[in-house]
Amino acid sequence: MRNEWLEWKLNRLSVYGVLFILACLVRLACFTGLVASDDIYYSYYGQLLSHGSYNLDFSSHFGSRIGVNVLVGLGYWMFGVSELTTILFPLLLSSLSVVLIVEIGSIIFSKRAGLLAGVLLLTFPVHVHIATMLLPESIMDFWILMGVLAYLIGLKQDQWQAGVFSGLFFGIAYLSKESGFFASSGFVLCCLIFQKNWKLAFAIVSSLAFVGVAELSCYYLLTGDPMYRVHVVVSSQEAYFAASSTNEDIYWRLFKDYPYRMLVPNSNFGLHSIAVLLLSAAAAFVLPRRTFWMLFLWAAIPMLYLNFSSVSLTKYLPAPVQPRYITQVFLPLILLAAAVIDGWMLSGSRRLLIGTCGVFSIVVVVGVVSAFSMRGEGGGNVPAVYSLRGIVSQLESSHRQVVKFEGKKADIWRFTMGILTGPEPHSGECVNDCLLVRPDASGLPSVADMPPTDVKPVQQPSLFYLKEAP
Fold first, then answer.
1. Domain extent at residue 424
2. Number of folded domains that form the chain
């Protein structure tokens, strides 16, 4: 396949448009939506922002992830509250990440390598799976890739001003999730050690510092504590560990958990993980030293943080383990793998070309199948969300309404139904045919007729569901 046609701007934009649409379609085919877990907290803060207010407290760290909450609030302000607008920006930014990694691969290696990296990310199971859930990783990965692209433009064109944008993008990644900060470290080190580009490094660090000072100032004005984010993350994570048995085997957690997940094929990583890890190892012997170390540091520093950092300031508590936490680590590994595959395709060996294409196709197909097998899964309270969707359908067909929720998860169900039903107002009070939602024998939400003596006036949903955090 020749690369010259991609040099034409019109054709390149057309290819990027096709990749973006294809990425959206694959992700929508593997749709999950609400899981009534972390997502409803982000939704809560997004709804506050869409109403022109914001309330930070010390009970949850979700309010500190402004990079997520602002986008959710923007979606709600523009299109109203619904399940689709809740996952709108994760879906769009996850799909745009495919385009960005193609452009990055094209700059570092070749157009073909960029396209190969794009196809690998487009079909990477865990990346596809979380794209239709309101979680910070899809948003964080996008801003990391934007930061990398700005860095490469500054390096290629010797424009330190691009480093300002690179630092800002890395800063937004950090505002989306704390681990996003560490992606920038590898590029600053490369600037200082390999490129000797002091101006570009200083521009990145200065922009990051600006984001950090702005964040500390906002927290001081809103809460009186400039270290609010650190304190609230620590307190919430310590509470999580106190309520769970996570990390009982500290040796397994630190040295085997992530390696096992990454090396043994599973639905989250398909064959992508083992393939890109092997190819990344091969890249160390075939790629230029500076290029390999830039991508290696991009992967290694966040991985060290995610695997070995402590979520407590007073005792060592390793961070929880989730496949989605390390999606950012796979971005540079995918680029390394694509470069090696590209080299094999250009080797001139027909057998090697056919074998490479065959293995690549198998990895891609298994990735799509794995992602599709995980549709509708997401932990949290997914079975309850399915039940609530059924209740919403019943209400729409019968024109009845729920006025009360019972059970220990009543607040979560109430808030989730507020998202599922959208912004349509209730009549203001319920006199006949009123319903309540309460747990059935299995603990899932079910509807029952409301006794007449329990009927009370109903507030508008926009206020009713925002009355308190779930």
1. 382-464
2. 2
